[in-house]
Amino acid sequence: MASRGHLHLYARVALTAWGHARVQAGLRMHVVGSPTRTVGQKAGGRAARACAGLSEASRSLGPVQVLHDAPLAPLTTFRLGGPATRLVTAVTDAEVIDAVREADDSGTPLLVIGGGSNLVIGDKGFDGTALRIATRGVELRGTTLELAAGEVWTDAVARAVEAGLAGIECLAGIPGSAGATPIQNVGAYGQEISSTLTEVVAYDRRAGETITLTNEECAFSYRHSRFKADPERYVVLRVRFELEDAGGLSAPVKYAETARVLGVEPGDRVPLAVARETVLKLRAGKGMVLDAEDHDTWSAGSFFTNPIVTDEQFAVFHARVRERLGEGVEPPAYPAGEGRTKTSAAWLIDKAGFTKGYGSGPARLSTKHTLALTNRGDATTEDLLALAREVVAGVREAFGITLVNEPVTVGVSL
């Protein structure tokens, strides 16, 4: 997605939290009725220095926390980006709606932030109001799970597994807030949000009212949804899932790598806790589980989506693979609907010559996974984008496929 540094920017797809307390790293906050205090842990590199310069001029409208000239880098897992003119933190649905309405009524650009694990903010920051969704609430009724948008997704998965409910256990370890998951139809290891989500409660900025959308109305597809297609219209407030009671067992294992590690066949079920722990280990081995001490996790996870091409485009691509790598080399290919094939962005990057750890500057490819671009501690957003552009150009030259960035960009573009 390109930058939307325009009225009412809605970057909710980026708003996933690698650990909600962590994204507040280093911020000095003033809360009405409370003394100024430090929340979370110290951020590294330029993010830490940005925090040190945070303006103490803050105010609150009722219980809503408002900061001015507020660093946004600590609210992203890249630890990159300049400040927002104004940062509002909302802890209830009503506060979220009030903040959105205030911005809309005044014509103020709005950036909605959950956890920032899929967000690339320009070095100049955001000239407008950044709204951080910090709502909480979990309700489990039988096999129905309802989550407030600000709930940490990894915690929600753990709760479902503990309750013996299947359907989202292979989405363990995905950094994110619950409200972000339907935006790009989050998926991993054979499961997608669209498979279990039943309803999304959202504030419709165009209509000025709260609405409930069914699964069908969300228009889900691969890493896409109605919310991503119209990013300035909806602010997700709550999400509801219908899970499965399979007697403590997981949903049928679909992903080949997961089945191999588990020692089962695709379609088999395994104990829920085993499925979750296996996925967490797989993700950690690729640097996809947050660790503040590991710069391989100072990223947005997968930076590019897996390309989906037509059969004709795949034939041309296949020919270029044979020409470049030899007749016996077969690129990854997965069915993606009639006349369409999905291939692997990570494979393309690697075969184009960008191996793990590629780069010599402060922004480099992860040493654990070629699909992750990382901040090695003192990068700028421009450093990161320069690396991304180099990878995109290299893959296009090698294979004729143009990679598309998965994170939302604010004030910048590839």
Overview of this protein structure:
With 414 residues, this protein is an alpha+beta fold. It has helices at residues 45-52, 93-106, 153-162, 226-229, 256-262, 272-285, 311-325, 345-351, 381-399; strands spanning 28-29, 37-38, 58-61, 64-71, 83-90, 110-113, 119-121, 126-133, 138-141, 144-148, 165-166, 187-188, 191-192, 197-204, 209-214, 234-242, 244-245, 308-310, 334-335, 340-342, 363-365, 373-375, 408-410. The strands form eight sheets. Strands 3-4-5-8-6 form a five-stranded mixed β-sheet. Strand 19 (334-335) and strand 20 (340-342) form a beta hairpin. The chain is globular and about 65 Å long. The termini are close together.
Mean pLDDT level: 86
* Portion in helices: 10-25%
The strand line-up of the biggest sheet is 3-4-5-8-6
Q: How many helix segments? A: 9
How far apart are the first and last residues' alpha carbons, in Å?
9 Å
- The Cα radius of gyration reads 21 Å
The count of β-strands is 23
How does the overall form come out from the CA principal axes?
globular
Report the β-strand fraction as a percent range: 15-25%
Structural class: alpha+beta
| Stretches with pLDDT under 50, minimum 5 residues | 1-61
Q: Biggest sheet, in brief?
A: 5 strands, mixed
